[in-house]
């Protein structure tokens, strides 16, 4: 018979089926062997009856351990006692590989699971997260391409950073010093003069010594850059992106969300309701009313973001942060020069920053001044400053940490579960 996925077999509901996969659970008695088989689509209970199969099949099945790989044929029927409501009575069994005793059980520590991430990926929890992650990546591509954006790639090895120097990973590039990229932005700003509207999804690296539930040292960065765009239009673009990702997950991954115990009602407002838009100044006023006095000019900490978002069920664009604490490429707002034309999108449910974006400074002298203040050599940014000399135009962009979005959608406690093999200050293996 032609092999089907487990979900295809379940959809068939009755008759002869052939499946293959891995043993997820096993239970044995003198007369029956129950094997729950998994593949990427679902799980299903199978039963091998001693009096219905030849001795070779029975003896082979009796030696099976969890994660052994098998191919089998049999008859499927509804059984409400089974984990997914159906059971296959096995008539033919081929054991592709006998697994050794599997090291992971229900009571393993977080560190043990991290050490054995290559095996923990097989868990139903991780499979569900990775499926949702895949949907998110597809939705990002779909969203930007449908709006006429071109996908554009930039170097991973770069001569200088776009953010604070201490967060750069330094590498030896033959006889010179180089760094791993924090963002594609500086190269993207060059490319908009050719392709105009562009986006990418690529790895970024931040050498932040932050062992928190929200930080990774290597993460996937969805970024966009466009000419002829103002701050409100940029926020419209970011809001549309988040809504589209949520919409696609709600359409395609209801079973995975259910398995993760995620309350869909907490996700639906993100699709249906407009996002909040508020200035940094007004956030400080709101926090002051709640008893949190934040000096003007100080960046918002996690505790302050969470307090502000406590009663909101959709994200909030916080605009016009103080210029002096912003990256060098963020320009002053002509209406309030103490602030920058920028925003952070803060998520509900203690998600923190999801997107950071800004209009880009077009003034070469201002850019040089800001770079020098950060201890950077403007000569390393000559290629970037050149873009301001030859037909510069108003433009802007933003970056979104994809793992933060996946963490939020899945309702995860830790961002490390939003990526297959997390990299943190304490871990770069396996």
Notes on the protein architecture:
There is one protein chain. With 430 residues, the chain is of the alpha+beta class. The chain contains 14 helices and 18 strands. The strands form four sheets. Strands 6-10-11-18-17-16-13-12 form an eight-stranded mixed β-sheet. A five-stranded mixed beta barrel has the order 1-2-3-5-4. The protein has a three-stranded antiparallel β-sheet with strand order 7-9-8, with no helix packed on it. β8 and β9 form a beta hairpin. α5 packs across α7 (231-252) and α5 (124-146) crosses α14 (402-410). The longest helix is centred in the N-terminal third of the chain and has 23 residues, at 124-146. 36% of the residues are buried.
CATH hierarchy class name of the largest domain: Alpha Beta
What's the total number of strands? 18
The gross shape turns out to be elongated
The proportion of strand residues reads 25-35%
| Chain oligomer state | single chain
Radius of gyration: 26 Å
CATH architecture of the largest domain: 2-Layer Sandwich
| Amount of helix | 25-40%
CATH topology tier name of the largest domain: BirA Bifunctional Protein, domain 2
Trace the largest sheet across and list its strands: 6-10-11-18-17-16-13-12
N/C terminus separation = 38 Å
Query: Which structural class should the secondary elements be placed in?
Result: alpha+beta
**Full CATH superfamily name of the largest domain:** Bira Bifunctional Protein, Domain 2
Number of alpha- plus pi-helical segments: 14
The overall pLDDT average reads 95
Low-confidence stretches: none
What's the story with the biggest beta sheet? Answer: 8 strands, mixed
Number of domains in the coordinates? 2
């Amino acid at each position: 018979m032609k092999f089907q996925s487990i979900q295809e077999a379940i959809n068939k509901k009755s008759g002869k089926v052939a499946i293959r996969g891995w043993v997820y659970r096993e239970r044995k008695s003198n007369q029956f062997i129950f094997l729950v088989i998994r593949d990427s689509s679902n799980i299903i209970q199978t039963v091998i009856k001693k009096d219905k199969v030849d001795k070779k099949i029975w003896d082979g099945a009796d030696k099976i351990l969890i994660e052994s790989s098998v191919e089998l044929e049999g008859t499927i029927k509804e059984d409400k006692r089974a984990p997914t409501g159906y059971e296959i009575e096995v008539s033919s069994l081929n054991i592709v590989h006998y697994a050794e005793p599997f090291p992971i059980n229900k009571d393993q520590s977080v560190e043990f699971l991290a050490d054995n991430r290559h095996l923990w990926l097989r868990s139903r929890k991780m499979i569900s997260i990775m499926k949702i992650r895949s949907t998110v990546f597809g939705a990002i591509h779909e969203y930007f391409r449908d709006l006429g954006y071109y996908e554009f790639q930039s170097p991973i090895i770069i001569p200088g950073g776009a953010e604070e120097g201490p967060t750069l990973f330094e590498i030896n590039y033959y006889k010179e010093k180089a760094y791993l990229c924090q963002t594609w932005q500086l190269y993207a700003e060059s490319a908009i003069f050719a392709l105009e509207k562009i986006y990418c999804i690529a790895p970024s690296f931040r050498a932040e010594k932050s062992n928190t539930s929200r930080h990774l040292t290597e993460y996937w960065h969805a970024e966009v850059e466009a000419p002829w765009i103002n701050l409100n239009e940029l926020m419209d673009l970011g809001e549309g992106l988040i809504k589209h990702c949520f919409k696609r997950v709600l359409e395609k991954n209801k079973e995975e969300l259910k398995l993760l115990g995620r309350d869909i009602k907490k996700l639906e407002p993100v699709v249906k309701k407009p996002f909040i838009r508020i200035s940094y100044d007004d956030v400080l006023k709101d926090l002051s009313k709640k008893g949190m006095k934040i000096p003007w000019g100080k960046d918002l900490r996690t505790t302050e973001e969470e307090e502000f978002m406590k009663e909101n069920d959709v994200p909030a664009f916080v605009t016009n942060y103080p210029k002096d604490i912003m990256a060098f490429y963020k320009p002053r707002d002509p209406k309030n020069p103490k602030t920058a034309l920028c925003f952070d999108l803060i998520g509900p449910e203690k998600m923190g920053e999801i997107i950071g974006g800004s209009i880009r400074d077009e003034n070469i002298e201002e850019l040089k001044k800001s770079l020098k203040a950060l201890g950077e050599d403007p000569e390393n940014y000559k290629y970037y400053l050149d873009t301001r000399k030859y037909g510069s135009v108003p433009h802007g962009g933003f970056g979104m940490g994809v793992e933060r979005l996946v963490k939020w959608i899945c309702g995860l406690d830790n961002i490390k579960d939003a990526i297959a093999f997390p990299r943190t200050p304490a871990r770069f293996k396996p």
